[in-house]
Specification:
Layout lengths: L1 H27 L14 E6 L3 E3 L4 E9 L2 E2 L4 E8 L5 E8 L5 E6 L5 E7 L8 E2 L3 E6 L3 E4 L5 E3 L3 E7 L8 E8 L2 E9 L5 E7 L7 E6 L8 E2 L3 E2 L1 E3 L2 H6 L7 H5 L18 H5 L11 E2 L8 E5 L6 E7 L1 H11 L2 H4 L1 E8 L14 H13 L4 E5 L9 H20 L3 E5 L12 H4 L10 E3 H4 L5 H7 L4 E4 L10 E3 L1 E2 L2 E2 L9 H20 L1
Parallel strand pairs: 2-10, 12-20, 21-24, 23-24, 23-25, 25-26, 26-28
Antiparallel strand pairs: 1-3, 3-4, 3-7, 5-6, 5-8, 8-9, 8-10, 11-13, 13-16, 14-15, 14-17, 17-18, 17-19, 22-24, 27-29, 30-31
């Protein structure tokens, strides 16, 4: 019992000490102080002026902030967005709320975003954010050309051009063709630094196929499909020409004020250098063309089978072969039968004994004399770089000597003057490196393109019974030789006509030959 009583005073001392400390703590608080108030969390509302926006247009984001049920004035609100392309958050800007708690912010988005408004924490408020809103941004197409009335030709190049905002440079664009319910891509490109694009493709369907320019979804942008483009697509260049299309080909040379909107964007056959070189029109069929200078020539026959048809021979080199392509489509309508004697170099004229071309020239001369021809068409390349008046006159005499015996037999000689010879091998690169339809502006000076002397002029002048056909007006005027005439590329290389232009030239050169025969 004694031990229990001895512990009670100690307990009372401890209790008294605790009470004393508590009293001391209370006494240390400043007079009139209270515990800190808890921070509140604002409520931010946000709306956007649209959920789908054209690229380059302005978007307005607005809303209001309330705190504890009351408008919060002077609060800083940030507008941020998660880029649909990169997945990264970006801040567009910040504004302060007005006295009624409202706020508004405008900017121009360059991508699709998930947008929201945010507030950072302060001494009195917690951080807060609005609900997010998705925004779709769609690029726009401008000046897509050619329009729905444009022409095209199967298996030939076609160019569709247009533009977007320059900020889209480097992005992809494509052209698609409607094949039933499926769109088939036919060309792809990227926008250049100015936003321009050219979509070059080869048409594969005649009739009225439907095409669309499409900017595919990319880098946070949603897909954009342009309006339908319907081309009047001819099965061949000959069909295009025969359809009487205004201003096409040589028609544009004869009427230089001619304008046909349907031809906008059409360049035939191509501006691709390799394919242009191959556009011969079939002029060098190995069965009818001799590529070895001194080998005898083979005769090939074309045109009318009517016994009363006018019998014509065409003799010469590769330039003559080009005119042969011009004439093939004109033979039956004119009731002409054409035999060709075509080969590289070694023209039809009298060569001195022992000359390497003598055997071929004699062989051709014999065939022509035995051919019972009404007309012989002679043409060939002039030497643009090396002809002198003396050399040209010598060649003219040699031609006259070859012609004279045939003229004596009653044969009409029609000489076709040579066409332009471009100043350099690089001249045609203006066409092959052109962007869009810039090739339409390519040309060469006429004086440089006709450098050298064509001996056919002198030979005809001095030979009764010979007539000259000069095609210069179809290819050059006002001192200039355009490389594209009436939407047709004239040359396939430095001095050979493209097969396409040769065909387009056909009705006109045939008309000139008919007039020459009638003289």
């Amino acid at each position: 019992m004694q031990s229990v009583r001895s512990r009670r005073p100690a307990f009372r001392l401890v209790a008294a000490a605790v009470v004393a400390v508590g009293a001391l703590t209370v006494s240390l608080l400043p007079s009139g102080s209270a515990s800190a108030a808890p921070r509140t969390t604002p409520v931010i509302s946000m709306t956007t002026s649209t959920t789908s926006l054209a690229y380059g247009k302005q978007l307005t984001v607005q809303g209001a902030v309330q705190n504890a049920g009351k408008p919060l004035a002077g609060a800083r609100v940030k507008v941020v967005g998660k880029n649909a392309g990169t997945g990264l958050w970006e801040q567009f800007g910040a504004v302060q709320t007005a006295g009624n708690g409202s706020w508004s912010f405008a900017f121009t988005p360059r991508s699709g975003y998930r947008i929201k408004a945010e507030m950072a924490s302060t001494a009195t408020t917690n951080a807060a954010a609005s609900a997010s809103s998705d925004l779709a941004v769609q690029p726009q197409l401008y000046g897509v050309s050619p329009g729905p009335s444009s022409l095209a030709v199967v298996d030939r190049d076609k160019i569709v051009s247009g533009s977007v905002q320059a900020q889209l440079s480097g992005k992809r664009v494509k052209l698609a063709r409607a094949d039933g319910r499926v769109w088939t891509d036919v060309a792809t490109a990227r926008f250049d630094a100015t936003g321009h694009f050219d979509l070059k493709f080869r048409t594969m369907k005649e009739g009225s196929p439907v095409y669309r320019v499409i900017i595919p979804s990319q880098a946070g942008l949603v897909m954009k499909m342009g309006a339908n483009l319907t081309f009047d697509t001819k099965p061949s260049l000959l069909a295009l020409q025969q359809s009487g299309t205004a201003c096409y080909g040589v028609a544009a040379a004869l009427d230089r004020g001619c304008v046909n909107p349907a031809l906008t964007g059409l360049i035939t056959p191509t501006t691709d250098a390799a394919r242009l070189r191959g556009d011969t029109g079939g002029a060098y069929d190995p069965n009818c063309w001799q590529s070895q200078p001194e080998t005898l020539l083979t005769k090939c026959s074309y045109g009318s089978t009517d016994p009363s048809a006018l019998r014509i021979a065409l003799v010469g080199d590769s330039h003559a072969a080009g005119y042969g392509i011009s004439l093939r489509g004109q033979l039956v309508p004119n009731k002409w039968k054409l035999d060709t004697y075509l080969g590289v170099s070694c023209r039809w004229m009298v060569f001195p004994s022992g000359h390497g071309c003598e055997a071929r020239a004699r062989d051709v001369d014999t065939k022509l004399k035995k051919g019972d021809y009404d007309v012989i068409i002679d043409t060939g390349l002039r030497q643009a770089a090396s002809d002198t008046p003396e050399n040209a006159s010598a060649v003219a005499r040699q031609r006259e000597q070859a012609w004279a015996p045939l003229i004596a037999q009653g044969v009409k000689i029609v000489a076709i003057a040579d066409h332009p010879y471009l100043p350099s091998v690089d001249t045609l690169s203006c066409v092959s490196t052109a962007t869009g339809t810039d090739a339409l502006g390519c040309s060469a000076p006429q004086a440089a393109s006709y450098k050298g002397i064509d001996p056919l002029f002198e030979a005809v002048r001095d030979t009764p019974g010979a007539v000259l056909v000069d095609p210069t007006r179809y290819m050059c005027w006002d001192g200039t030789c355009p490389l594209v005439v009436g939407n047709v590329v004239v040359y396939r290389d430095r001095h050979h006509l493209s097969g396409t232009f040769a065909q387009a030239l056909g009705p006109y050169i045939a008309y000139d030959i008919k007039k020459a025969i009638a003289r």
